[in-house]
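A further point concerns the way the authors explain their paired sequence and structure data. The central task, working out the structure tokens from the amino acid sequence alone, is never made concrete. I therefore recommend that a typical entry be quoted early in the introduction. An entry of this sort, consisting of the sequence and the corresponding backbone structure tokens, reads as follows:
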Amino acid sequence: MGGSGGSDYSPGPGTSPEIDCVRLRFTAHPTSLSADVLSTVAAGDTAGVVLVDDPPFQAIEVWTRTDGAVLGAVVERWAELQHCLLAGVRFVADFVTVTSPVRVNVHPRTALGCATLTARTRLYLSESMPAPPVGATLPLSLDMNCRFGEQTRVKDAVTGHDVGWVRCHPVDLPDCLAAGHLFHAVVEAIDGELITVRVEPRPEA
């Protein structure tokens, strides 16, 4: 999958022993922290752990669930975690402390709660697309050909044309869409280029 910036957080090549990915749990101190993103999270919050970019610039990053913002990178247990992520095991990071030193508990995702997956987040418009009106309800779809973070596409409800994308729940929402769950984004506010939408499951017909 495509990455978010190309910085190389990887500690270098290595080999991973045979490990039980569902039992991999450890404490990490994220590096290359974004102060702006850190100010938006609190102890007890949960973020996604994602593998981005391609070797030799591969990174394991912590992305917030609300808007898919990159908090920083995980370097502890790197080879083992990379092995498990490549094997398709999903991991999350629970924030223990959000002051220096920032500390998270990394562990496999226990469940995928598609029925309760919601977020108030930003809609990023595709090039040359006009902003949809406030109150518009726009269906979501999954496009795995887009780079990571842009795979959850927002569509025009009438024409089906691509409007843009949302980055909230960057791991869970694509997984829910891939599993056949339906979601939409309701436009709540427009302030210049900032378009705020509410992402939620679509009610069954």
In short: The first strand starts at residue 26 and ends at 28. DSSP finds three helices and twelve strands in the chain. Confidence is low (pLDDT under 50) at residues 1-16.
